[in-house]
Amino acid sequence: MTIRIEKRITGYEVARDQPPAGPPAAAPAPESKVVQMHEKLERPEMLMGSTYKIKTPLSEHALYVTINDVVLNPGTEHELRRPFEIFINSKNMDHFQWIVALTRIISAVFRKGGDVTFLVEELRSVFDPRGGYFKKGGRYMPSLVAEIGDAIEGHMRMIGLIKDDGLDEHQRRHVEEKRAQFEASRNLARSETDPGDAFPPGAQLCSKCNTKAVVAMDNCMTCLNCGESKCG
């Protein structure tokens, strides 16, 4: 059909099919307000913390390791407790410079966020060229730095940053049975052993858990702490 235009054209547009009417578009989802650990997070006026005492045969004075935590997203389902800073104090000033440097670096890593659990293995793999020492319970510490890493690991486990991968109930019961058999065969009583030593005298160092708890049972070297056995 031809249409004659008798008026002056003042504008034009391309006609398009109109989309069918439907429900209104959903409003964009609000941005998540979950706060993650990052280096620009401001330090609150008050932080929760824990202090750990480290007493080694290397010095007559103990070290006190304080780790302060920040609580992210308090009161919500996303609430998290994360380490924010670390301080190490002692009357012994021999290690003052490197301890100050170490605490500043560790605190900076804490504030950076992400997975900071790698610090534990890095510190525990430091060996003193003069040799390490045994803690109470027969656990071997290769250096003072390694024991600081051990304290940090214990704190991370406490706040849930590191999950406990220890023995399950069946394994724990098996180790207890093995220990009872060993003590019975040697006529050893727990009260007769050194109260500071949790394992029988003469036990060897376990290569898996670094605890002096490996004994010979049924012609097989078995660890009474973690259950490691050369016989499988």
End-to-end separation: 94 Å
Total helices: the number is 4
| Low-pLDDT residue spans | 189-196
| Main sheet attributes: strand count, strand direction, barrel closure | 3 strands, antiparallel
Assign a percent range to the helix content: 10-25%
The overall strand count is 8
Which radius of gyration do the C-alpha atoms yield? 31 Å
Order of helices and strands: EEEHHEEHHEEE
Which percent band covers the strand fraction? 15-25%
What sort of overall outline do the alpha carbons produce when their principal axes are compared? elongated
Biggest sheet strand order reads 1-2-3
What number is the mean pLDDT?
83
**Class by SSE composition:** alpha+beta
What do you see in this structure?
It is a single chain. The chain is α+β, with helices and mostly antiparallel strands and 232 residues long. Helices cover 25% and strands 19% of the residues. The longest helix has 18 residues, at 169-186. The radius of gyration is 31 Å and the shape is elongated. The N and C termini lie far apart (94 Å). Mean pLDDT is 83; it is low at 189-196.
Features:
alpha+beta; 8 strands; 232 residues; elongated
Layout of SSEs?
Blueprint: E1 48-54, E2 63-72, E3 80-90, H1 96-112, H2 118-124, E4 133-134, E5 140-141, H3 144-158, H4 169-186, E6 204-205, E7 212-217, E8 220-223
Antiparallel strand pairs: 1-2, 2-3, 4-5, 6-7, 7-8
